[in-house]
Every structure is written in C-alpha cells, then in structure tokens.
Amino acid sequence: MKSSESGKESAIKQAFAIAYSLMRLAESRPDSPMAKALGGRAFELIDLVSNVKSSEALEAVDAIHYQIRLGESVDLISTENVNIVDSQIAGFKSAIAEWVKTSEVKLNNITVSAKEKIVNKDPVSIKVATKPEPASDKTNEEYERSTKVAAQMRQTVILDKIRQSGNCRLKDILDLLPGTSERTLRYDLQSLVEQGLLERTGGGGPGTYYELKPAPVTFS
Question: What ranges make up the beta strands (E) of the chain?
C-alpha cells in the first residue's frame, strides 16, 4: 500500500513540475499561439492526474512532448528547455508505471484471496461480492490540495492576462485556458472578485468585463 501511495505522490509531483514548466514557457512567449496551447496542456494534465486518469495523462504528456519539439523547430523554445521538460515527462511516466504496477499487484492479491475462499465449492453457485473501500481522509486531503493548487495556478494566469490587456471578458479567458470548463472559469473569476482582486463591469452577459480592482486611495 505504501508503495502504491508513493507512486501516486511521485506522479502528482512530476505532473506539477511539468505544468509549472509549461506555464513558464507560455509566459516567455505570451503572444504566440503556442503559449495558449501549452497553458491549456498544463491545466489539462493537472486535472487528469487529480482525477486519477492515468492513461489519458500519459497521452497528454506525449502530446506535450511533440508540442515542445515543434516549438524548438521554429525557435520558440530552446533546446535546453525542451530537454528539461522531456526529462520531467520521463520521470512522470516512470512514476505512473510504478503506480499502475503496485495497483495491479494489490488487485491480484485480492483475486487470489477470493479464490482461496471458494475452494471445493460449486463455482456456478458462488458469487463473490466485493465492497469498495471508502476513500481515506488522506486521499481526500490530497485531492482537495491538488484541486486548490490547480485553481490558484489558473487564477494567477487570469490575473496576469488582465494586467497585460487591461480587461477581459469570459470569452477571452476561455480562449486563454481551452482545457478548462466555462463553469470552472466562472468560479475562478467570482473567487477573484470576492478576494477583492478583480471587479466586474459592463451591462451583464457577453458585455461583462473583468478588470483589476484599483487599490484604495489613502490620505496621510
């Protein structure tokens, strides 16, 4: 069990390392189409790992590999940075492989135990019912923590975009983070408004804009 948890924790850490690198690369070329693509991939990878979708996450890092190689070929990403991300991807794949392997070992042990219990009994008349184990508090805490970090990363990107452009509509944010649902981005914008970092202006609906909330004026 500890080995499985270790593999999972390692995969999550590697995923965050890859996502962070992609965000830094996107920030270095904010006006290029690749910036939007890499930013979207970063949040997609975090969402996949947070929701324990290992096969989809492996497909996502393969796509990231080809995207950064394309960026290298057109001189948008340096070879050094490409090698760094590729190294992180290799570490992520190793962690996923270990995670899946230990999970399969655990499943096989459960299967053997069930077979031992039904020896010398009619296999047709025996039905082995399995009851799923409830999620542990630790698993819930890890999920909540990873979800919170992902939200903080998205909100940082949103604030940086609005600082650069002066204001943004919801549509602009959806274009900026194509891998994130509209519902999630509405929540992020509302959270930033409630934190006093943004203010909502306009006539509502498509005409609504978000801009940085001015700092209060103080008189000495």
Answer: 167-168, 198-201, 209-212
